[in-house]
Specification:
With about 775 residues, the protein is an alpha+beta fold. Among the domains are: about 350 residues, Rossmann fold (3-Layer(aba) Sandwich), CATH 3.40.50.1110; about 200 residues, Gcn5-related N-acetyltransferase (GNAT) (Aminopeptidase). It is about 25% helix and about 20% strand. Strands 18-19-20-21-22-23-25-24 form an eight-stranded mixed sheet. Strands 4-5-6-3-9-12-13 form a seven-stranded mixed sheet, sandwiched between helices. The chain has a four-stranded mixed sheet with strand order 7-8-10-11. Helix 4 packs across helix 9, helix 6 packs parallel to helix 7 and helix 12 packs across helix 13. The N terminus and C terminus are likely disordered.
């Protein structure tokens, strides 16, 4: 009999010659547009809110079950509701993932499907929807708050690493991690630190959890497992760990000999050895029992320190043919009908869920353990694996007879991001159970976590849930911009003890802050307020990250909601204001068209280009009010014979403005502008509407907004040396060249650029109120 061969064994070495001789030239050529895009838009990690509180979200009561879920109507999530998230379906999701293959630097190359040229990006546009509830979108700020001053360890095989790398990418959208430790081949032992929260995330390679000796080329062709003791590579560090996320399964399928107290008790697929074949199901159960008992014992011994445990259930593979031929996992869409978890997948999953249940019954109240039951939802995503795109552009020279496929691990971004959304809900449930909640009718929607502050204050919230109170949608001019009136923001506004949390379905808000050391009473929290102001659509925006806003930021956000700049041109009227969520798609199309034109990119890159731009705009939008994207709508003048006809507005241009260091790009273009100064970039005018002064007024609108939003007068922008017309416009507007790229910048595949600066005039506060109506914008 033959032996079972690991399809991924030595896959890198077998492809070295092919990669070097054939892939390198066209890989550089194909990645060039992506690299240029990166240099053009400069995506960055989002800065973290300075407020140490949790955003508005409601935890799911985690309820994995061995039996089918009970039938019932879908309910609203709250602190006491029960949700079996294991039964559901994948539904289309236009918003897509938090990150992409270029904005996250911790993705293992074998899972970076986008950068490796996977042409179908539809697999990114799906979201898991349980039958009876909804899982909130992942909020990286909340996760970081929950792990502040803690050490979270992912222990297991490559699926544990896959999940951790997904989590790192999601968290890095708000805070940049530092790699502080690495060891072992293929970086099997690594640790990252998030200095913003003094939080550590580690990966420990331990594919059996118990002590094991992995098979090697120079030794026996089977693994050795010692089922009575845990692997000391992670077990010896349990005292430093606050939470463990376990993930194992696939390595138990390999040939192995099993030991208990150094005595052989059996084996799995060991021809030629005089051992009893016992399979691997009971061995998996024994390994889990040993592991959970060891963690439970350590948690009981550590006085005042608790070790929480999450066990991620078995992740199915989706091989539909030979692993080294094209089409091994060819699906491009999820399974739309709910599938049964059966066979080996079901056995592995059931063992893991059962052992978690046994551990709960055995443990005292101080030990917390949950099963992260992702087997079914993962089974329904055969489209989420790298497949042949575990290597860059595998079909650049045509379809070859042999091509290696990875139908086990998951693309990043991809379906595995959902695992971490559920993980966050587990942690929120634990936090809710251990933290007193304010007695309030809003406690089901708002989670208050008291945090000591230097100046305590109370916050009174009043919400109106009346669906009739929607803001009227108009293009701009709700408040006409007053050029000589400076908006004053009080930088010394005291921070409330409980920062304002907005419920996503609320259409009104009122904020009242008063200095007090006592918490608000239920009556003061729920008292109705007369004539509340309508909420800004940016508070209700589904693209928000849940970041907390200070009172000063709230004032600025309200001002941005009403900001408008209007100018009558020879051929029509231009109205400029802040981009809204529903206008993102048209803005993406405009930017993609402009970028493709300037770089002479082929139309084949259009979908990929729009995807990157969308990710970038979502990241920038979440930085409001520290940065903003403005859009200009143009309405043609009516002809005399067309007095009764309304001319439609069309998107004419867009420009991006950052006001301070928190809104600045972490990786700005060269020459580098000061990060704490206002910066204008990505100005684009629709091709058919150029030469009408629209670019000039986008610039003027940006300057007007900066004069209100920033106390710094120096404004910076970049202009490529080859762009003569924009350069002349900037000179005419009063900008001067501060610095110019050296010729060496060409070696980085970038155009030479001027860094230009203008000192805005100091505006005076005018006591006169301007009640002018905006002309041409309604």
């Amino acid at each position: 009999m033959g032996t079972i061969i690991n399809p991924f064994k030595d896959q890198y070495h077998s492809s070295q010659s092919f990669l070097t001789k054939k892939l390198l030239p066209w890989t550089i050529y194909c990645i060039l547009p992506i690299a240029v895009f990166r240099l053009y838009f400069y995506p960055l990690n989002l800065p973290l809110s300075s407020i140490d509180q949790f955003p508005n979200s409601t935890p799911i009561t985690i309820k994995p079950s061995l039996s089918p879920p009970s039938q019932g109507n879908e309910g609203t999530l709250n602190a006491t509701s029960s949700c079996d998230y294991t039964s559901g379906k994948w539904v289309p999701d236009k918003q897509g993932p938090l990150y992409n293959g270029t904005s996250c630097g911790t993705i293992k190359q074998g899972q970076n499907c986008i950068s490796h040229g996977r042409p179908d990006l539809g697999f990114l546009q799906w979201r898991w929807k349980p039958n009876q509830c909804s899982i909130p979108r992942f909020n990286p700020n909340t996760f970081l708050q929950l792990i502040q001053n803690k050490h979270i360890a992912f222990v297991g095989d490559s699926m544990a690493r896959n999940q951790l790398e997904s989590l790192l990418c999601m968290l890095s959208t708000v805070s940049t991690p530092n790699l502080i430790y690495k060891n072992g081949e293929d970086n099997k032992f690594r640790r990252w630190n998030f200095p913003s929260h003094n939080a550590n995330l580690s990966i420990y390679w331990s594919p059996f959890l118990v002590q094991g000796v992995e098979k090697s080329n120079n030794g026996p062709n089977h693994n050795k497992l010692y089922l009575n003791r845990v692997d000391e590579k992670w077990g010896s560090e349990l005292g430093t760990i606050d939470q463990v996320v376990l993930s194992i399964g696939h390595w138990f399928l390999h040939p192995a000999v099993y030991y208990d107290q150094d005595s052989v008790i059996g084996c799995h697929y060991c021809p030629g050895l005089n051992h009893t074949e016992i399979g691997f199901y009971d061995v998996l159960r024994k390994a889990l029992k040993t592991t959970l008992n060891a963690i439970m014992k350590k948690s009981e011994e550590a006085k005042g320190k608790r070790i929480d445990v999450v066990l991620t259930t078995f992740s199915p593979s989706h091989f539909e043919g030979e692993w080294d031929k094209a089409g091994a996992c060819p699906k491009t869409e999820p399974e739309l009908e709910e599938k049964l978890v059966e066979g080996m997948n079901g056995e592995m999953r059931n063992i893991e869920v059962e052992e978690v249940g046994f551990a709960k019954e055995k443990s005292d109240k101080g030990f917390r353990v949950e099963a992260l039951d992702v087997t079914k939802l993962s089974l329904m995503r055969p489209d989420g694996h790298p497949g042949p795109y575990m290597y860059p552009f595998p079909f650049a020279n045509g379809v070859t007879e042999r091509v290696q496929n990875d139908c086990v691990h998951w693309c990043l971004p991809g379906p595995i991001d959902t695992w971490n959304e559920i993980l966050l809900e587990v942690m929120k449930k634990w936090n809710l159970a251990s933290t007193p909640v304010q007695s309030s009718p809003f406690h089901r929607n708002i989670l208050f976590i008291p945090t000591p502050m230097a100046t305590p204050a109370t916050l009174s919230l009043s919400f109106s849930l009346d669906p009739q109170h929607h803001l009227p949608h108009h293009y701009c001019c709700a408040t006409h911009f007053k050029p000589h009136q400076t908006l004053l923001f009080n930088s010394t506004t005291p921070l409330p003890k409980y920062p304002l949390l907005f419920h996503p379905k609320s259409d009104r808000y009122i904020v009242k802050s008063s200095s007090s050391s006592s918490p608000p009473s239920p009556s003061s929290t729920t008292a109705p307020e007369p004539d509340p102001e309508p909420a800004s659509p940016y508070f209700l925006d589904t693209l928000g990250t849940g970041r907390f806003l200070t009172n000063e930021e709230l004032d600025k956000l309200k001002f941005l909601d009403g900001f408008s700049y209007s100018q009558e041109l020879e051929s029509g009227v231009l109205c400029v204001r802040v981009m809204r969520a529903e206008e993102m798609d048209m803005t993406i199309s405009l930017l993609a068209e402009s970028f493709a034109e300037s770089m002479a990119m082929a139309s084949a890159y259009d979908t990929l280009l729009k995807f990157f731009i969308k990710q970038y705009l979502m990241e920038r939008r979440s930085l409001m009010p520290h940065a903003v994207t403005l859009v200009g709508f143009f309405r043609k003048k009516k002809q005399q014979e067309e007095d009764d006809e309304e001319e439609e507005e069309e998107l004419a241009g867009t420009v991006e403005v950052s006001f301070d260091k928190r809104g600045a790009n972490t990786s700005p273009p060269t020459p580098t502008p000061p990060k704490n100064s206002p910066y204008i970039c990505n100005m684009t005018v629709k091709h058919q509407l150029r030469r009408r002064g629209i670019g000039w007024h986008l610039l003027k609108a940006s300057e007007e907004l900066i004069s209100k939003m920033s106390s710094t007068r120096d404004v910076y922008l970049h202009c490529r040396m080859i762009d003569e017309a924009p350069f002349n416009m900037y000179i005419k507007a009063g900008y001067h060249v501060v610095k110019t790229d050296t010729i060496l910048i060409l070696l980085m595949l970038q155009r030479r650029k001027h860094l230009m600066c203008k000192k805005l005039p100091v505006v005076t506060i005018s006591e006169e109120s301007s009640d002018e109506e905006c002309k041409g914008c309604s």
